[in-house]
Write a structure and sequence with these properties.
With about 325 residues, the chain is of the alpha/beta class. About 45% of the residues lie in helices and about 15% in strands. It folds into 2 domains: about 210 residues, Rossmann fold (3-Layer(aba) Sandwich); about 90 residues, 3-Layer(aba) Sandwich (Rossmann fold), CATH 3.40.50. α10 links the parallel β7 and β8. The N and C termini lie far apart (about 45 Å). Belongs to the serine/threonine dehydratase family. Its EC number is 4.3.1.19. InterPro entries: TrpB-like_PALP (IPR001926), TrpB-like_PALP_sf (IPR036052).
Amino acid sequence: MQPTSEQLLKVHKRIESYIHRTPVLTSTLINQLTGAEIFFKCENFQKMGAFKMRGAANAILNLPKSKQKNGVVTHSSGNFAQALSLAAKSIGVPAYIVMPDTAPEVKKAAVRTYCGQITECPSTLKDRERTAAEIVKNTGATFIHPSNDLDVILGQGTAALELLQEQPELASIICPVGGGGLIAGSSLAVKHFGKKATCIGAEPKAADDAWRSLKSGKIEQNESAETIADGLKTQLGDVNFPIILDNVSEIIRVEEPEILEAMKLIWQHMKIIVEASSATTLAAIIKEKERFQAQKIGVILSGGNVDLDNLPF
């Protein structure tokens, strides 16, 4: 049985004092370019710079106090490492973060800024999981998966919930697909609070495991994932995939040059910085703009944690 509208509203109330209610922006020039009326939910303005603060906060707050005191642990080299660290700091619990030894120093520094306690390990998933399990055993901390955890999924869904509260007449909400937590949560918000809206995913063609999974009805994997949208290289999980299968109408695949162009358009016309992962959404609209003509479209700009020394354009 999938989560109800009441559960999603309860989650939103639970986390609202720990997150920003991010702005919804528009661009006349981008609307003219696409022929659609686009409403950008700017999670790049979220605390720690990405939507993942929502799910991290909910997952910690929904733990019993007896478990909170032992802390939380995750394995992540990206935004969830920062999100769980900051959420834990805000709530007053320890955060243990397993990061691959290949993770950029800038990401490790960000986690330390939020008081996350880093344990480095080799970069394979097996090593990450083994290291996290050891921390759980030694500390009594609770493991929280970055995307395949129902509390995380419901937290991520509050971004789309807020967008629909402001723009209830949206025809679609488009969000990036990586590990599946954001699109699963967004699809639940659309299901319960969108009048006639559909939930659509955007994914790099170079890492199209979710597109293939939706077609086959089972979780597919990528043999390789060479994409600038590095936040979307992760795989769907057994908790979020059934939700996606039931509630996501389709996934649009975009090429690398299309992602770059969309990233530049957002920079140029909206004067904001978003990650390449976020830009897949606008790239998807531009790629299939005939079908979105004259429609009100919501877009989740998932984050803005960009290394300015290594911009892809």
